[in-house]
Amino acid sequence: MHHSMPSLMLQSRVGGGRLPGPAVGVLAAGIAGYRRFAAAIRPVGKGVPTLKQFILRGRVLGLYREILRTLRHISTTNPILLHELRAYARGEFERNKSVREESRIRFLLSTGRQELNQMRRYIGEE
């Protein structure tokens, strides 16, 4: 079905803008399939994020990954400390996962960056 879509579009342009009868059914089925797919990948009860929300989400995930990478530099001689720091970082992100206001998310990102920089200074990475 996916391969026939471009040819249907070509037929539509060549045939004066009208698709042949069977092609209309194929096209409608393709659109319905796409809608089902889009609905399946979208979280329940949530719409498509705006561009700002999408970018902020990427920044939040990036900060979390950066924190975990920084924690790898802590000596493995104290695995309990490493575990506690990872649990603390995860807990902070989990605690704030329901925040939706962009200004609040930006504030939390700024605070997280400051704490990450303090941790880096403490472990001597910066």
Description:
The protein has helices at residues 4-14, 21-41, 51-71, 79-95, 102-123. It has 126 residues and is mostly helical. α3 packs antiparallel against α4 and α3 packs parallel to α5.
- The count of strands amounts to 0
Largest sheet: none
Rg, nearest Å:
24 Å
Q: Quick one: overall form?
A: elongated
Structural class: mainly alpha
- Low-confidence sequence ranges: 1-20, 37-42
The amount of helix comes to over 70%
**Beta-strand percent range:** under 5%
pLDDT averaged residue by residue: 73
Sketch the topology as an H/E string, one letter per element.
HHHHH
Count every helix, treating DSSP H or I runs of 4 or more residues as helices.
5
How would you describe this structure in keywords?
126 residues, disordered N terminus, mainly alpha, 5 helices, elongated
Quick description:
The protein is an all-alpha fold.
Chart the SSEs and their pairings.
Blueprint: H1 4-14, H2 21-41, H3 51-71, H4 79-95, H5 102-123
Helix pairs in contact: 3-4, 3-5
